[in-house]
Amino acid sequence: MGEYVRRLMAEVTAKNTNEPEFLQAVREAAGSLELCLERHPEYREARVLERFVEPERVVTFRVSWVDDRGEVRVNRGYRVEMSSAIGPYKGGLRFHPTVYVGMLKFLAFEQVFKNALTTLPLGAGKGGADFDPKGKSEQEVMRFCQAFMTELYRHLGAHTDVPAGDIGVGGREIGYLFGQYKRITNEFTGSITGKGLEWGGSLIRPEATGYGAVYFAQEMLATRADALEGKTCLVSGAGNVAQYTVEKLLHLGAKPVTLSDSGGFIYDPDGIDEEKLAWVMDLKNVRRGRIMAYPERFPNATFTPAQPSDDHNALWEVSADCAFPSATQNEINGKDAANLISNGVFLVSEGANMPTVPEGIDQFVTAGVLYGPGKAANAGGVAVSGLEMSQNAMRLSWTREGVDQRLQEIMRRIHEQCRDTAEEFGEAGNYSHGANIAGFRKVADAMLAQGVI
Ligand code: NDP
User: Fold this and answer.
1) pLDDT-based confidence at residue 213 (cuts at 50, 70, 90)
2) Which of 158, 284, 366, 439 has the most C-beta neighbours closer than 10 Å?
3) Residue of 129, 137, 127 lying closest to 75 (CA atoms)
C-alpha cells in the first residue's frame, strides 16, 4: 500500500474505530483505488477519497412502539446519506438486530460504487433499525414500520432520498412504510421503491437482485465461452435474493442444490426445481417458516444446522461449479473460500453485500475463479429501483419483458465496465479492481465538477 492510501487508512481507522465492517469495506476499495489515484493527481489534490469515506449526513432516531402485550418497546433507527454526487440518495433499509451505524456505513459505502455502475443517476444511502421482524405479529410489524417512518419521512423525497428493502424489509414492510409516508405527507410520490404493482411498483423489482446476479454470472462465463446450463450451483440464504437467484438459474438450465437461513442449510442432491422453489417461497414469504422444514417435505434432502462455533460454513463444502452467496456479509471466510476452490467452484457471483472476507477474495483471484463482487453482481436490484423511479415520474408501467430487457442490458454494461476498467489498469480479469475504479471515477468526476462540498 502506498504512502497516500496508508495515511488515509490510518485516519479512517482512527475516526471509525468501532466499525469493523465499514473499515473492511473501505480497505477493500482502497486497495483498488490506489491504482487510480496514482494516475489522477487531481483526485488526490481535491481530497476526493477523503470526502468519499465521510457520509454527507447520518441521521439517528428513536423508534418507540407498543407490542401486542401493550408494552412499550424502543428501537434505534438510522439513515446514512452517503453521497448525492450523481443523484438522490438511494439504498435499502435493513431491519435486523445486528444493525448499528457502522453496518449501515459499510452498506452505504458499497452502494456509492454500485449505484454509479448501474449507469443511472442514483446517489447512495442506507438505513434501517435494530428491530427483528422475526417472531413479531403482523400488527407489531405494522406498528413498528409506522413509528419508524413517522421520523424518517422528513428526510425522504422523490428527489432527495428514496429507500427500498434489504434484509428484513420485504414487500410487507415496504407497504406499511409507504402507507405511513403517504399519510403524513399527503402525497403519492415515488419516495420509496419495491412498492406493490398496483400502487406504483415495477414489474421485476422483486426478482431484480437475484436475476441480476445470475445475469452477471452469465456474462462472466461468456468470457470463457461457457454457460450456466447443466452447472451445479450453491445458493445461500432463503430470502428475496436467494429465491430469485434459484428461479433464474432454473430458467437457464442450471441445478441449484442448496439454500440456508441463520438456522442452517439444506442440500438437495436432486436439485431444487420449480415446484420445490414454489414451496420454499410459500414457506418463507407466507408462512414465515424456517428452511429446516424442507427435508420433511422433500426427504431426499438433508438439513445441516448452523454451528456458530465452527471456523467454517459447511454449505461451502458441497461440490459444485458455481456459488451465489445471497445471505449476508462475511459468510465466506478464508477457509470457506479454500473449500469452494478445492471442491471445484470456478465462479462466485455475489448476491449479498460483502459476503466474502478479503482473504477469501484474494484466494479467488489467485486461483483464477470468476469472481463477481457484490457491488457489481447485485446491482440489478437498485437498477430496477431506478427504473421504478423513472416509471413513477412518468406515471407509466413498463411491461415485464421491457423491464427484464433493461435489467439484462444494465448487467451487461456493468460487466463491461468492470472488465474494461480492470484491463485499462493492467489487472485483466480482476472484477473487484474494475468495479471499484469504474464506480469511483464516475462519482469522483461529479464531485470535482461540483466543487468542495
Ligand atoms: P432477506 O431478509 O429476504 O433474506 C435474508 C436471508 O439471509 C435469510 O434467509 C436470512 O436468514 C439470511 N441471513 C440474514 N442474516 C444472516 C446472518 N447473520 N447469518 C445467517 N443468515 C442470515 O434479505 P435479502 O434477500 O433482501 O438480502 C440478502 C442479501 O442481499 C443481503 O446481504 C442484502 O444486503 C443483499 N442485497 C439485497 C438486495 C435486495 O434487493 N433485497 C439488493 C442488493 C443486495 P434468517 O431468516 O434466519 O435471518
Assistant:
1) very high
2) 439
3) 129
For the CA atoms of 173, 176, 179, 184, the dihedral, rounded to the nearest 10 degrees, stands at -110
Residue 220: pLDDT band with limits 50, 70, 90: very high
225 in the same domain as 349: yes
CATH of residue 137 = 3.40.50.10860
Residues 168 and 62 in one domain: yes
Residue type, 205: R
pLDDT at 1 over 90: no
Last residue of a domain, one of 321, 347, 377: 377
For residue 309, pLDDT beyond 90:
no
Given a contact cutoff of 8 angstroms between Cβ atoms, the answer to whether 38 and 2 are in contact is yes
The pLDDT, as a whole number, for residue 358 is: 95
Q: Does ligand 1 come within 6 angstroms of the Cβ of 353? A: yes
**Residues 213, 351 share a domain:** yes
Q: What is the CATH number of the domain that holds 316?
A: 3.40.50.720
| Integer CA distances (angstroms), 253 to 146, 230, 278, in order | 42, 6, 17
Closest residue to atom 3 of ligand 1, CA basis: 239
Please tell me if the CB atom of residue 238 comes closer than 6 angstroms to any atom of ligand 1: yes
What is the model's pTM? 0.97
- How far is the C-alpha of 407 from the C-alpha of 405, rounded, in Å? 5
Measured in Å, residue 324 CA sits from the centre of ligand 1 at: 12
Tens digits of per-residue pLDDT, 126-174?
Answer: 999 999 999 999 999 999 999 999 999 999 999 999 999 999 999 999 9
Please state the domain count of the chain.
2
Q: Are residues 331 and 290 in the same domain?
A: yes
Last residue of a domain, one of 377, 394, 414: 377
Closest atom of ligand 1 to 353 CA is 32
Residue 168 shares a structural domain with residue 238 = no
Same domain, 246 and 361: yes
Q: Which three cell numbers stand for residue 413?
A: 454494461
**Structural domain for 137, as ranges:** 55-188
CB 327 near ligand 1, within 6 Å = yes
Catalytic residue annotation: 126
C-alpha cell at 299: 426427504
Distance 169 CA to ligand 1 centre (A): 9
Per-residue pLDDT reduced to its tens digit, 95-108: 999 999 999 999 99
